[in-house]
Amino acid sequence: MTTPESLPVERSSELMTRAERHIPGGVNSPVRAFRSVGGEPRFLQRGSGCHVWDADGNRYIDMVSSWGPLILGHAHPDVLRAACAQAELGTTFGAPTALEVTLAEEVCRAVPSVQMLRLVSSGTEATMSAIRVARGFTGRNRIVKFAGCYHGHADCLLAAAGSGVASLGLPDSAGVPPAAVADTLTLPYNDIGAAEKLFKAEGGRIACVIVEPVAGNMGLVPPQSGFLEALRRLTATAGALLIFDEVISGFRVGLGGAQGEFGIAPDISTFGKILGGGFPLGAYGGRRDVMEQVAPLGPVYQAGTLSGNPVATAAGIETLRQLRNGGGALYARLNGLAAGLAAALRAGAKEAGLPVYVSQYQSMLTVFFTDQDAVPDYDAASRCDRARFGRWFHHLLDHGVYWPPSQFETAFVSAAMTPDDISMVAENAALAFHAAAG
Ligand code: PLP
Question: What's the predicted TM-score (pTM) here?
Answer without folding.
Answer: 0.96
